[in-house]
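Bug: token stream looks shifted between consecutive jobs. Job 1:
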Amino acid sequence: MTDLTTLTLAEARAALANKEFTAVELADAHLSAIERARALNAFVVETPDKARAMAKAADVRIGKREARPLEGIPIAVKDLFCTAGVATSAGSHILDRFVPPYESTVTANLWRDGAVLIGKTNNDEFAMGSSNETSYHGPVISPWRRRGANIQLVPGGSSGGSAAAVAACLAPGATGTDTGGSIRQPAAFTGIVGLKPTYGRCSRWGIVAFASSLDQAGPFARSVRDAAILLASMAGEDPKDTTSVERPVPDYEQAIGRSVRDMRIGIPKEYRVDGMPAEIEALWANGADWLKAAGAEIVEVSLPHTKYALPAYYIVAPAEASSNLARYDGVRYGLRVPGADVTEMYEKTRAAGFGKEVRRRIMIGTYVLSAGYYDAYYLRAQKVRTLIKRDFETNFESGIHAMLTPTTPSAAFGVGEKSSGDPVEMYLNDVFTVTVNMAGLPGISVPAGLDRNGLPLGLQLIGRPFDEESLFSLGHVLERAAGRFSPERWW
């Protein structure tokens, strides 16, 4: 029998429908792969009993010809999504005993459509990180290695566990969240597809909040088609989330293979940053050529406020985080460190429960929201955010259908290479992705090549609001031209 873990989601779906194997066999194959790959530290909770029970139910439905869109498909879930009866820690010590009594809307939608939970994936603590090194459960290790070297590499963050799981064939698909690039950056680092949908396309209810005006759930997969299939199940209006948008969810899979002829694709000149590696420039040029060969028109465009995006983001996001994380006090759930009085208990619990990066961002956020600094920092950052959004709107109104940029300024780096020094160096990994979150737009990262060390590099497509279909069509063109990339198994 074919190694079931190497099948794409679409291939597994077709094979299950043809009864080439059972959902239980598919789940068991992935559960076994997870056991063999524990060196990656991609999963913080494995759910074999739940997976087999869900797979058995899927087999019954398949046998009755009542299969739903994701019937029997194993899915890994980022540990930021609350899962009823399954521990959810958000990668933090302060929540390491929390078992939610409720299900997030996104995961409930997946189970509604027949998907099978195989485990919860590791992530940066409260999604604060670009390398998956800030997790209380330890760093995730990428399944990739530099050619001729054995240095452990990061998978990107914050959704590094989900990205590593999909890239290592431990799951055909996984959920992630993206606040400043936390789906697209790890997708680029691990050679897979990652989509950040338009803000409001997927419900945020039941997802542990980082920055509420920026967070958005999205899928990881090994093909653009698989990402489209997953988004169709994840998306939808939710009355429990007032920021979710009441719009019909298209059949995204129908966009795969659709012509991109006469689409106008913008190349933002501001993304040509100083010191960009020549191989990133070459990859970007290749992507433009591939889209042009498919009939698209390539146009240079300007996003003049791009240079302010990263500093504005690192004011807005910590400010919202300091507010959201105020709820973790040791009183109602999670870690509690006793103190002489309530105030001391708060202080000790939060000091012990939060890691270094989370404490740093809480302090930054509290500072920029404080009296005397709110206008100087937070209010000004929000004004810059409006200008960034307007830059995109101006281009889309002029007839631009999407924009093509690099996803990251480099390939994956080594564990510990950037986490022990200046935090700004780590923050610069988000330089190409944060604008999308600040403007609330959809963005997809598609693997497009390898660097000189044999590591994957991604190209990013940025779309008009709620036009994920165009991103899937354009992403499929890039995917067909570049091919797919897989790490050599070492774990």
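Job 2, same session, no restart:
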Amino acid sequence: MIIDQQENTSIITQEKATVIELVKKLEALYPKFEKHNIIIKLSSLGKITLQDINEFLRISNKHREAKHSFVVVTNTIAIDEIPDEIIVVPTVKEAFDIIDMEVMERDLGI
């Protein structure tokens, strides 16, 4: 797990371990990230399944309830398969775009 900090956004890249192992690490280290927006990069893991994405639901919901963004980056799953409760985009640039939009919405009280 590689952690890169850019302003108030933590970019977490998973290179080798499974999604389940990543979620366990995230939950253990969550206090370190709880005040930041989070981008999870799964690009190097290969094929990601809907079940893999669903592993992030609990932490994503918790993070979004705290008024922070949580975005998963992968281009190996069909977007129409993904539940509305979690945001998945194909590129890191799109993840930053989503975060920018959500920050503006929160600032406007939307």
